[in-house]
Amino acid sequence: MSSPPGARLWDDVAPPTATQPATSAPEQGATAGDMLTVGVIGAGIVGASIACRLAQQGARVRILDAAQPGSGTTSSSFAWVNANQKTPRDYFDLNHAGLEEHVRLPDELQPAIWFHAGGNLIWAETTVDRDELEARVERLRGWGYAAEWWSAAQVNAELEPAVAFPTPETAVAFFPDEAWVDAPQLTGRLVAVARRHGAEVGVGTAVEAIETAGGRVAAIRLRGSARIPVDAVVSAAGPGAERIAALLGLPLPLAPTRGLLVRLAVEGDPVRRVVHSPRVNARPDGRGHLIIHHDLLDRQLRDRHGIHPADPPCDALLRRAREVIPALEAAIVVTARIGVRPIPRDGRACVGAVSAVPGYYEAVTHSGVTLGPLIGRLLAREMLSGEVDPLLAPFRPDRFPRG
Ligand SMILES: Cc1cc2nc3c(=O)[nH]c(=O)nc-3n(C[C@H](O)[C@H](O)[C@H](O)COP(=O)(O)OP(=O)(O)OC[C@H]3O[C@@H](n4cnc5c(N)ncnc54)[C@H](O)[C@@H]3O)c2cc1C
After folding, report:
1. FRET partner for 254 with CA separation of 20 to 30 A, picked from 16, 29, 274, 347?
2. Structural domains for the chain
């Protein structure tokens, strides 16, 4: 069978001359990842982050994706980087560290055109929602997270002149350290850095099998039967991770949900940062564009896969947005996408070694845009040194019964 255009296979790549178990420490004098061959399945923000960090440390990395890097859920994300509504404490700590990792990354990877600081605004309409928001701000402050109260009048004067609030006195929570990122752009950059460090990228061909020898991971087989010998495999396949686990006979319970993202062409600069209003969530998306979203519309999607910009849910979202940002009167919907959130059934991240199959690792999570770069660094370290970071310790894949 011939491979599709654009696919790059490794039939002709000689197997590594020496291998090193994924959990053993590197030899003295060697780069941490010397000689380790890792297949990373999935080039979304999570897989790209892991591949980048592994390749930087000398691992021989093969990034494998059935589609283009960043074109999965990563391209259908609101991409708000935050730890705002994350509980319990261990999940908050992980996401807070994820936000801090994003803030550091631009210093390392200049120019960081994907990163958009500026914070996030949230306000509530009902008493119940206001009480919840007040309790959240208190909790977050107690956990060392930047959270402030502004009046709507102050916000209009200093941050968002075009946003319409119920009254000038409306209390608005401002989270100044939060941000949004252009997730496909960041993913592309991470893949490029991985390539510069020797990673090979094969796109357009699905992984169809993972072979084991003596109980541990030995090779990946692609559709078309190309065989890639590896020492370790990372499943960063997003919503496809359940199928990847099944290739090894392992259950991985996911409870995915769908979300609608609508991209608008707008005049001027109607919103400058992430805004969560009771009617709509909005953020900029490059010059002359906004992304809008709301949970209410998500709940109406059920099992719907495709959507067209002219479809009623997009219009409903736009009408909600105009109530909050009257300057959107002339805005038009340019694209609409339905994304699938890769959520482990207990709602928590699933990251680390799967002890049932030595050499097999998983990195599957919601909030993957916030968490991707951090997971990349910490999982690469775990794979190359055997050291499990305390931040990841509560999120091990082994918490699920694995057959
Ligand atoms: C509407 C919506 C809003 C969201 N908002 C936020 C937010 O504000 N902040 C936040 O942090 N997160 C948010 N998320 C979640 C976040 O977008 C995801 O957690 C993240 O994008 C997951 O990235 P990933 O790399 O794991 O998966 P993906 O981006 O889906 O990448 C997985 C890749 O694996 C490939 N693949 C799958 N199976 C195979 C196979 N068999 N062989 C080869 N390749 C394979 C796919 O082609 C894909 O490219 C949102 C998600 C949605 C849907």
Report:
1. 274
2. 1-114+180-253+342-403 (3.50.50.60), 120-176 (no CATH), 257-341 (3.30.9.10)
